TrEMBL record:
SUPFAM superfamilies: DNA/RNA polymerases. This is DNA polymerase Y family protein. The keyword DNA-binding does not apply. It comes from the Bacteria.
Length: 500
């Protein structure tokens, strides 16, 4: 596919942005300035101020002498880059590959995108019309190379769309600055009488290199397309991503559902053909008003089931606010894994175990509804100490060689760290008669014999624990223990768990 690029130039980016926020500034000259070496230097000027001779780099005092009623506002460092990134996010409806060209432009890879707007002319007109409608003064151009598109957008005076292969001819009449050279190189070219690209582009490369360095040759090669140029995209193109532009903005829940299902069908077909399933899916909805809304889902095991994934998204459709309408949907799967082949296990207990797809889908529904962090699966760990005898599982397919202790019962809720309690008991080794926990007194009616648990001597020197399963007057059951022997100086009682 022939590569085509679009360059967009915001000549008055920051001042246009301020005028949009403060409409009263639309018809008055103003500048943005910052303090430098005890002087107030102008960083940006709006179109009205520029027409009266005010340019960036001059001092605010000199500008005031020219325009007494000139308004001066603070320049915000880094604002241009943030603003361009935000506008670039909005432009993703036109192409997935957009790069910020600081301090005043955007670069778009539009290969294969323009046919949706009837061709390159309609494509460029649509983008510029929308941006101008928002209040920005913009120029744009389309060419085979980034350098040529950049040059035509800023210095071109004839046509904005350069036919494939026509970048060399289009650059000849432009000034040296159109090659994105630094100020020193441009001044040196001017001093030697080179005021257009045509005047020096035919000179031997060795002579240009000796006089101007390698940078000039690189910029020429990039503009002509003989050297590759790489950009840092706002959203790098993900290998598993689908886009769905809309001819008319979508405003209804039904329309959103149809869009999600169409995207899922396309994406899942790709995944299934490669033997993969998604673990995470992110839906982004680009609204007409420039806002971005969306939803994301996660699965416990790789899945490419359209019906299952759609049900997960259906739980979140109510949170997607279309406002004036959604004009572009994107769906990407940033995390995919090899798809496990399901085998039917008939007439065995394993048929309803952890390998059951129905169980995995049920857990996915619950996780996307109440939050994955509220659902936990634990695996046994080889340890006698209760709080070290388990670990959280990362997925349903994770296994361990450890086994759950099948002797005395364990509480359904185990505290991560035992908590101190006050106990009254008969000595020497009787279970508690009562205990006080968080200010509440619990009188014990039933208790089982003690279970002594010793720690691993190679891990800790902590004293042993004597655990008791006790039941209070209200039938509530607890797991409490005494640390060490009853006659030890540092012996204490603790509560460690609650039985259902």
């Amino acid at each position: 596919m022939q590569k085509r690029y679009c360059a967009i130039w915001f000549r008055y980016l920051l001042t246009d942005w301020l005028a949009i926020r403060k409409p009263e500034l639309k018809d008055v000259p103003f500048v943005l300035a910052a303090s430098e070496k005890n002087r107030i230097i102008i960083k940006a000027a709006n179109q009205l101020a520029e027409k009266q001779g005010i340019i960036p780099g001059s001092t605010a005092a000199d500008a005031k002498a020219v325009i007494p009623d000139l308004k001066v506002f603070d320049f915000i460092p880094g604002k241009a880059e943030k603003l361009l990134a935000a506008i670039g996010e909005w432009c993703i409806r036109y192409t997935p590959l957009i790069a910020v060209d600081a301090p005043d432009g955007l670069l778009l890879d539009i290969s294969g995108c323009t046919h949706l707007w009837g061709g390159e002319k309609g494509y460029l007109q649509e983008i510029l019309k929308r941006l101008k409608g928002k209040g920005y003064y913009v120029r744009g151009a389309i060419a085979d190379t980034i350098g040529a598109a950049w040059a035509i957008a800023r210095f071109g005076k004839e046509k904005a769309i350069i036919e494939p292969g026509g970048q060399t001819e289009a650059l000849l009449k432009l000034p040296p600055a159109a090659l994105r050279l630094d100020t020193a190189a441009v001044d040196r070219l001017h001093k030697l009488g080179f005021y257009t690209v045509q005047q020096f582009i035919g000179i031997k490369r060795s002579a240009l290199r000796r006089r101007f360095g390698e940078q000039l040759l690189l910029r020429i090669d990039e503009a002509l397309g003989t050297a590759a140029e790489h950009l840092q995209w706002i959203h790098p193109l993900h290998p598993y991503q689908e886009r769905l532009p809309c001819l008319e903005p979508i405003q209804t829940a039904t329309g959103i559902e149809i869009a999600i299902r169409n995207l899922l069908e396309t994406l899942c077909n790709r995944l299934k053909s490669e033997g993969k399933g998604l673990r995470v899916a992110i839906l982004r909805c680009y609204r007409v008003d420039g806002k971005l809304v969306g939803a994301d889902i996660a699965t416990g095991r790789p899945s490419c089931s359209v019906d299952h994934l759609f049900k997960l998204f259906a739980l979140k459709i109510a949170s997607i606010e279309p406002a004036l309408g959604i004009e572009l949907f994107t769906l990407e799967a940033p995390k995919v894994e090899d798809l496990m082949i399901d085998q039917e296990i008939l007439w065995t207990p394993e048929g309803c175990g952890l390998e059951s797809p129905q169980l995995a889908e049920l857990l996915d529904k619950l996780a996307n509804k109440i939050g994955a962090k509220n659902i936990q699966r634990y695996l046994p760990v080889e340890s006698y100490w209760p709080e070290r005898a388990y670990k959280p599982s990362l997925s349903l397919s994770e296994t361990t060689t450890g086994k759950w202790r099948a002797g005395r019962p364990r509480p359904s809720l185990l505290l991560k760290k035992p908590e101190r309690i006050e106990v009254t008991s008969l000595l020497p080794d009787n279970p508690p008669m009562l205990f006080i926990y968080k200010g509440e007194k619990h009188i014990i009616r039933k208790a089982e014999d003690a279970e002594r648990i010793e720690p691993e001597w190679w891990l800790t020197q902590s004293p042993h624990r004597d655990y008791y399963l006790v039941e209070d007057e209200q039938g509530r059951r607890y797991w409490v223990f005494r640390s060490g022997h009853y006659d030890d100086a540092d012996s204490q009682w603790y509560i460690h768990g609650f039985f259902a």
